Amino acid sequence: MVKDVFKDWKECEAIAESMIPIIGKLYRDHNVITSVYGRSVINRSVIDIIKAHKFVQKILGDELSVRETYPVLEILSTLNLSPSRIDLGKLVRGYHDCKMSQSLEEYVRSEVASVINGKALDNRTGQDVVLYGFGRIGRLMARLLIERAGGGEGINLRAIVVRSGGAKNDLQKRAGLLRRDSVHGSFRGTIDIDEENNLIYANGVKIQVIYSNGPDQVDYTQYGINNAIIIDNTGIWRDEAGLGQHLKCLGASRVLLTAPGKGNIKNIVYGVNSGLIKEDVILSAASCTTNAITPVLKAINDCFGVENGHVETVHSYTNDQNLIDNYHKGERRGRGAALNMVITETGAASAVAKALPEMEGKLTGSSIRVPTPNVSLAILNLNLSQATTVDKLNNYLREMSLHSDLKKQIDYVNSTEVVSSDFVGNRNAGILDSRATIVKGTRCVLYVWYDNEFGYSCQVNRILQQMAGTMHPAIPA
Fold it and tell me: Is residue 271 situated within a structural domain?
């Protein structure tokens, strides 16, 4: 009998529609973040939810339907849950793996037992955050923080700090850049401005726009901001002396740099060395390339051992380059970015050792800037300690992407048709292109895509959550 595919699709659409209000209520009322094998379903459309389920089939070869996850969601909605991250897909798979020896409700209750009737949110005020600088990373961080505002008890974006543009409609321009993005598309929601009070309202989130000529010249307390984490997106100051200026401001308590830090500043790649985050008042989130390659290198080194290797990055152009030929202090970077491939240096290979000391002295690196505005590619040419095969290496990294502590850092794609634009908006630090993997004995070549803007911003946001103490328990563990 031929399956009625269209009828099945319409039924799945109806179920996904029913899931949306439950997902939203769990998030707003309990700060419960729901996902399907790491793919968030919060504030997502019907199609997005169905596609998140389809992803499982592409990677695992097993079907996962909204018909299976919806009953799990219904059970969760009846429980008094504390803040947590719950993977609906993995709960369904876990239930099947235990041979359904108990009812679905009994299984779900047992899995989430640790977060039932936990700490309530009523007395939590959240962590104030200020974005210092509002360029590419600053605006994407704003989108992430607004998207995850929840009930206002977690990380709260309170202000952005910028230099005065000099134009009378400066606030309109800032809001306009947040509203529309040539690479990442339109903002999901509504944006309004209050020019008299220099305020932007994004999906109800009140954001104070502060004009300042220096990081030590703002009194945040006059805006009701206290104990704030300052995210410095400018890249101007990278050492303790420069970034320490932020801490001279009333209302500021810690600083997170969205660039490689210098001196004794810890360079954190979330998932790799985020255990080093203690009470540090200044931290760095390293670079986009370091975040993309370090998790894969750690995974490979843990299983196969890495003797040495070379990292070549094919990197989209950035604001540091000239649009057309003009003077630039760096070699070759003065040539038109949108017209040329430009050989340049990268510190990512040596920077890996700051997050992964066992890689010290093992890697060399270089980079080619290319005429694309976003999404880059790292080519890892490695000599391993033991021989392997393409299938063994790929299967191992696929498992790491789904079931390890690096599942938010390593993504996996199994298609011969993907190109760079397919990874715009990917939330992982890097994505292994499994169909491009080359292995010959102890030598391997891996191709790792990464959204050098948004994927990196997601890594920054994870560090921010850990600094703020809002990284909630994951279920299943």
Answer: no
